[in-house]
Amino acid sequence: GTTCVLVSFPFIFNPCLGCKENTPQWAAFIYYLPFIVIFQFGWAATQISHLSLIPELVTSDHEKVELTAFRYAFTVMANITVYGLAWLLLNLQVDRPERTEHLGIQDVPVFRNLSLIVVGLGAVFSLIFHLGTKEKPFPLGSLPQPEESTPLLQKEPTRSPRSLLVWKDWLLEPAFYQVAVLYMATRLIVNLSQTYIAMYLTNSLLLPKKYIATIPLVMYISGFLSSFLMKPVNKWIGRNLTYFVGILVILAFASWVTLTREMGAEIYGVAVLLGAGSATILVTSLSMTADLIGTNTHSSAFVYGAMSFTDKMANGLAVMAIQNLHPCPTELCCPACISFYHWVMVFVTGGIAVAATASLGCIMVWPIRVRFHDVALQGLSGAGSQHDETESTEGRSQSSTVN
């Protein structure tokens, strides 16, 4: 996955090789398509395998929240680095006569250099991760070997290897779909708001292009600070209420955007709300996914992969729908797109937050746990115990007859 990202990412943010001003759009589309496919495959492989380590490393619910929060915190640090570099590169254009306050073709070298720097930094830290992280895999269907710190007496009887869930078993669990819908709604809010925030700032609010670096930077700093509150807040009020608090913050952001058509310095306050709310719901939804997996860590990659699949499909369809509704598809922006991106930001945050609240209500009524698989196993174990009791009874009767 890391190799695919390193190979494909620089080409996505560089001009099409061999393309000219009169090159048709379909030719450029065909050129970029394989690089985007390779990048998305690599990104999914990297993200899913990394997330799958969380249930492997810890078993406590609060520790899962803590690890997820730390993971998000370092993700935010990476994003802050990217936006800080973007702000620096954009401000280095001061001495250039062609520099303008809005994005244009003159900014292509900025994003090219930014992509190369990002790939270089990512390669270094990926190398550190792969060299420093040692896996201890155990065969499918077997339990991990006890270590020196493993207690001799277990609080609960250890499940037999047949009790482990395989990928087909997850498809029969209602909780699997509950978490998938909640995670999909969460990712729609986070990803679409990050996608359209730049257009909202430059086209709807008509702010200078430096804001496309500073506003996301404020969002990520807010999310970074909020991530450290996740463990104590989850311990205090629980998963569901923590997620609900995050949704309330997102709804506050959507309400502010709805009621305000022009913003100045208050845009930074709006960014703080969006960053804190996004961090809260994302960390909590990932923790819920880890709760769903529980001890079935051998199939955690399938669960995270399925969640990622629903999220990417939903995001792709949402972006296609939004772009098809664009009032001026033949040009970059027109007077009608000023209000268009304003309402896009309201919908992708407030509208989807309402759907996420409904999904959360479903989880509060039917809590996250494996149902049908455990029932089937209890039935099997019950039948087995009855069979054993029958055999022992028959054995005792035969023994008494012989005596």
UniProtKB/TrEMBL annotation:
- Protein's cellular compartments: Membrane
Q: Which domain of life is it from?
A: Eukaryota
What main location does UniProt list? membrane
The transmembrane residues are 29-49, 69-90, 110-131, 175-199, 211-229, 241-260, 267-288, 340-366
GO molecular function terms listed in the Swiss-Prot or TrEMBL record: symporter activity
Q: Where is the stretch described as Disordered?
A: 382-403
- What CDD domains does UniProt report for this protein, alphabetically? MFS_MFSD12
Q: Does the keyword Signal apply?
A: no
Q: Does the keyword Cell inner membrane apply?
A: no
Specify the protein's topology with respect to the membrane: Multi-pass membrane protein
State the SUPFAM superfamilies in the record: MFS general substrate transporter
Please provide the Gene Ontology terms (biological process) for this protein.
carbohydrate transport; pigment metabolic process involved in pigmentation; regulation of melanin biosynthetic process
Q: Name one GO cellular component term.
A: plasma membrane
* UniProt keyword annotations, A-Z: Membrane, Transmembrane, Transmembrane helix
What does the sequence similarity comment in the record state about its family? Belongs to the major facilitator superfamily.
Q: Which PANTHER family match?
A: MAJOR FACILITATOR SUPERFAMILY DOMAIN-CONTAINING PROTEIN, MAJOR FACILITATOR SUPERFAMILY DOMAIN-CONTAINING PROTEIN 12
Protein name as annotated: MFS12 protein
**Gene label:** Mfsd12
